[in-house]
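batch job 7 of whatever, protein = Nudix hydrolase domain-containing protein
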Amino acid sequence: EPPHVLHNLRRCATDRNGSSSSSSSPPHHANLKRASVMILLSQDLKILMTQRSLKLRSHPGQVCFPGGKQDPEDGGNAIVTALRETQEEVGLDLELGSNVSLPDIDTDESPKTKIELLCCLPTMESKHHLCVTPIVCHMPKVSHTTMSESLPH
């Protein structure tokens, strides 16, 4: 049952990280550019993936999590990067629930889809020498309208 699985994910992430989020990178990642990916789980535990355009120079056609490099306006926050990149790549304007605080960022007044932060997985170095932080979130209410309006046709 999904609620049981989500509870176990939260517990495992807390046991592994010592908290539900990871705010800093290991020292060996200090000089690398930072990036984040969004691992977004639906209520029935489906995972949102994207397919990169065949016209791109790097990784054309690759299936991946939405994500990308951290921008200066992200304030060094991996969660902010993952939220911004998800909006840019798939059009989902996401907002964390009220139990998580984020730095002030400029946003428009359009309605946002509420999601829950489950955990930040340990930061790792990619084969392209990026310091990547996977952000795992749960979207309890997935509207087919929201998804279909967000995805390219």
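notes: The CA atoms of residues 126 and 132 lie 7 Å apart.
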